[in-house]
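Structure tokens please, single chain.
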Amino acid sequence: MHIKPTWCCSSTLIGTKSVAQAWGTVGHDTVALIATSYLSDLAVDYFADILDGDELVDIATWADSYRYTAAGAWSAGMHYIDAEDNPPDTCHVTYPADCGTFYVIVMDGRYSTAHRHDALAFLVHFLGDITQPLHVDSLDGTGGNSIDVSYGSTDTNLHAAWDSSFVNEVAGGSTVTAARSWSSTLITAINSGTYASQKASWITCMDVASAAACALEWASDSNAYVCEVVVPDGADAIEGDDLSTGSYHTNAVATVKLQIAKGGYRLANWLNAIAEADS
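Here you go.
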């Protein structure tokens, strides 16, 4: 038996969007690797038994694999938030229309270690998902999966380009080795580079007792990029375009780097808050 935690999503959305991995494997692995470097000593000890020998990177994409199984089909809709807005004219996420209650069973000792491990895997994954703008939108009803574009010589769609094409290019590959290298670069940017002055603003909501409100804040942050960067002139303006060059590419890559860094740093601080609250 597996747990069924509620994520910030619209019940009307479940099963309606085409399945795709937010950020793809490299993106999720990078978020987890960044988070690992910012875990407090308390959090490392707290999650050691729950992880049962795994590292965060080992469970970062479990939720994507699980949802394709018969046992995990119920969880598919949790990877997305239907913002019910109208990009590029309006981008917003509202509560409670779009967000349900968020909770994590990792804090509940009444559950088995296996159940808490699953809950942690969901949490690690979903805090990556929520930073991908096209997982927090109402664009074309499919998160951009029906908007055809290309990436160099490869035909793809807008959602896949944001999930993987930009990410894999910046990371330098599609392996965990590439993720480790990229995470190191982003950690440096967080510590003393581009993001050093921004990182405090990423973790303004870290109260585990107000998880739904925090999830709404994070979702709203990502959703704004749909209007600002993903489709600033509407979907028709990029239909059929090659996204591997030009100003769109430049802006998208900058946003991807920011959102992955933000996701990893935020995940670490949320896990630290869980450990602190339950100790």
